[in-house]
Write a structure and sequence with these properties.
The protein has three helices and eight strands. 22% of the residues lie in helices and 47% in strands. The strands form two sheets. Strands 2-1-6-5-4-3 form a six-stranded mixed beta sheet. Strands 7-8 form a two-stranded antiparallel sheet. A hairpin with a 2-residue loop joins strand 5 and strand 6. With 128 residues, it is of the alpha+beta class. Helix 1 packs antiparallel against helix 2.
Length: 128
Amino acid sequence: MSDVSAIARACYQAYVDKDRAAIEALLDEDFHFTSPLDNRLDRATYFERCWPNSERIRTCTFKNLIASGETVFVTYEGEGRDGKGFRNTEILTIRNGKIVEVEVYFGWSLPHSAPEGGFVEPDGLTAG
């Protein structure tokens, strides 16, 4: 598989399918993962810390999936087994058919906790 968009799609499908063998085949041996909670985790730590989250994910719907060279920008909406939704954006770097790096930027819960046209104050109160 050499199409970076197809590789990205397959990565998210592996989460929905709980298919560890599929995700292992997609990640480079020198893979690194970064999120607001994780700073450049190596492949082994990623599987230990992050892969178990696949058990909680029921769906993944792409809102944006844009490839530019070896980089794929993905915004998706997911739903957990508990029915709670979320929206994130991720940047995947893919080289030689393997994902070498993922950066995650957490989005918001679905439905959004602020009313349309409104906002949530830092203390958690909504306005608008």
